[in-house]
Hints:
The structure is a homodimer of 192-residue chains. The first copy, chain A, has 192 residues and is α+β, with helices and mostly antiparallel strands. Chain A has a single domain (12-190), classed as 3-Layer(aba) Sandwich (NADH Oxidase). Chain A has helices at residues 11-15, 29-40, 59-68, 71-77, 102-119, 132-138, 164-168, 187-190, and strands spanning 51-56, 82-89, 123-127, 145-154. In chain A, helix 3 runs antiparallel to helix 6. Chains A and B meet through helix 1, helix 2, strand 1, helix 5 and strand 4 of A and helix 1, helix 2, strand 1, helix 5 and strand 4 of B.
Amino acid sequence: MTRDFQHEILPLIATRWSPRAFAPTPVAKGDLLALFEAARYAPSCYNEQPWRFILATTPEELSTMHSILFASNLLWAKSAPVLLLLLAKKSFTQGGKDNYWHMFDTGTAWGYLSLEAERRGLITHGMGGFSKKKAQESYSLPDDLAPVAVVAIGHRGSSEDLPEDLREREQPGQRQPLESLFYLPPSVLTAN
Amino acid sequence: MTRDFQHEILPLIATRWSPRAFAPTPVAKGDLLALFEAARYAPSCYNEQPWRFILATTPEELSTMHSILFASNLLWAKSAPVLLLLLAKKSFTQGGKDNYWHMFDTGTAWGYLSLEAERRGLITHGMGGFSKKKAQESYSLPDDLAPVAVVAIGHRGSSEDLPEDLREREQPGQRQPLESLFYLPPSVLTAN
């Protein structure tokens, strides 16, 4: 099923989606570091930059990351050459107050990372399906760092290598109509 | 002060920053709608798409939005021709459980929106400095919608029109070194 675009947008955004079939090809170090550079330049509240990363690329690092994934994700994500745990720092570094925007800003950084990956011919797939408790234990995370998502990164593989039920789902996701995203209908949409 | 890039990245990410000086020029409807189209195609947990928007472009809509901003932001944001309140739906539509990723995913959508704006020669400036209580009251927000941030959108104006203390701050923000963003130093950074 093809996506239905109502307005012309940045091609990288239009073509990006979240495949599950990963090729065994490793990710070049320069490409990988550029993803973090892109994330680094995301905007954030008071420029706090609350995003933090745990990166797994070696067999040992990947093995620990596999151990925190839910089985349904491990099934395909075990083939990704790179796994990344996104963390969000809950308090402001200056003053120590709760940062209401720690998840929000980390989401922006992930958005930038995902587009830099698309630009470099890499695929990404973010997962909420992992054990936060296991993540906290495995990595001895301090209370101030919230585990947010695990992202699989790599080159696209063949969907033939996926289990059959996932093979059918290996296509770009659809979206709600633009109009349904406005809580109050804005005049710009309702005006003739 | 120029930004220090450690790796080559998508030019739209590298050149985007958050100015405060807005020109009175209105934003074309087609440009504006494309920003939401870009946000619409962000990835989200279980494809929930928890981002919601309240858009202000008319004098009446802008006046309400001005009334929820903190004075320090109103000072400059009152010149923006477009203000946008970002909201995040706290529960999953299917099943009704809490969506741990509602702020995170809304941040990703905002990231995509910000880059589509940059692509179209528009500036954006996200603000955490607004009253959540006033936002809830002014727009009769249901408990399930968290007010997240107000974004100013428009064309860049002259920094000469800003108050003096803001004039000095009218430049791209700096970032922490890439290395400091890794909670555990990954082998890819530490290996020779």
